[in-house]
TrEMBL record:
<protein>
    <recommendedName>
        <fullName>HIG1 domain-containing protein</fullName>
    </recommendedName>
</protein>
<keyword id="KW-0812">Transmembrane</keyword>
<feature type="domain" description="HIG1">
    <location>
        <begin position="1"/>
        <end position="74"/>
    </location>
</feature>
<keyword id="KW-0472">Membrane</keyword>
<feature type="transmembrane region" description="Helical">
    <location>
        <begin position="50"/>
        <end position="67"/>
    </location>
</feature>
<dbReference type="Pfam" id="PF04588">
    <property type="entry name" value="HIG_1_N"/>
</dbReference>
<feature type="transmembrane region" description="Helical">
    <location>
        <begin position="12"/>
        <end position="30"/>
    </location>
</feature>
<dbReference type="InterPro" id="IPR007667">
    <property type="entry name" value="Hypoxia_induced_domain"/>
</dbReference>
<keyword id="KW-1133">Transmembrane helix</keyword>
<dbReference type="InterPro" id="IPR040153">
    <property type="entry name" value="Rcf2"/>
</dbReference>
Length: 74
């Protein structure tokens, strides 16, 4: 787990970009199998799902960084 954390801390933008692209792909695959939407609507929904996931991950990373910094200061 420590190796993963150190890699993510060194490659922040790559990690976020990979997460976003994976979320778009997963959402497209899920919506294609489940709902009869036009391709343009599938893409819009996939982008929205990926953005929501990215915001959640960034918020979690900010909270983790905040508590990690405060625990190291004490």
């Amino acid at each position: 787990m420590e190796a993963l954390q150190s890699w993510v801390s060194e490659h922040k933008l790559s990690s976020i970009g990979t997460l976003w692209a994976t979320a778009v792909g997963a959402s497209l695959a899920y919506s294609r199998a489940r709902t009869p939407l036009k391709p343009s609507l599938r893409l819009i929904h996939a982008r929205m799902h990926a953005q929501a996931l990215t915001l959640a991950v960034l918020s979690g990373a900010a909270v983790y960084h905040y508590y990690d910094k405060n625990s190291n200061d004490k």
